[in-house]
Design a protein that fits this description.
This protein has 151 residues and is mostly helical. It is 83% helix and 0% strand. The protein is rod-shaped.
């Protein structure tokens, strides 16, 4: 229903005008013709068709802009859903890797430098995920830039 909201509003206004014109016995079309004839001395009648064409193109531009904005919103929603899912998967991976870390810490003779490197890798991945989550504009350049800054 929301897709045709303006159509329903237009239908209601049209029906209202129709009912009012019948009840009050208004001759709207004849009055419109009279107004057009009175405007003939100002030469407005030559401008009607160009104005109609102009407004049709304006409406086309507005419609195209609204479609583009709607598409961008859908893209943002998809991006956020993908990011949330990726965040969940990576967090699960990090928690599972913590089991590896605890096992490595309990293993005698395990290289401490490897554990430090492990901590650095996990920290870097977490920062990259957080920087992707906090983007204000969602486009290819900002996504790449945020990941590059975090690494």
């Amino acid at each position: 229903m929301n897709n045709y909201k303006l159509t329903y509003i237009g239908l209601m206004i049209s029906l209202l005008i129709y009912v009012v014109s019948i009840v009050l016995e208004l001759e709207l079309f004849e009055n419109f013709i009279i107004v057009l004839k009175s405007l003939d001395k100002f030469q407005f009648d030559e401008m009607i068709i160009p104005l109609i064409i102009f407004f049709i193109f304006i409406l086309g531009d507005i419609r195209q802009h609204l479609k583009k904005a709607q598409m961008e919103n859908v893209k943002k929603d998809i991006y956020k859903a993908m990011l949330s899912s990726s965040h969940h998967i990576l967090n699960n991976f990090i928690y599972q890797m913590d089991i590896f870390k605890m096992t490595a810490e309990d293993t005698p003779g395990f290289d401490i430098h490897v554990l430090a490197y492990y901590e650095e890798i996990i920290s870097n991945a977490s920062h990259q995920i957080n920087s992707l989550s906090n983007l204000s504009t969602i486009d290819e350049f900002s996504i790449r830039t945020s990941v590059m800054k975090a690494s």
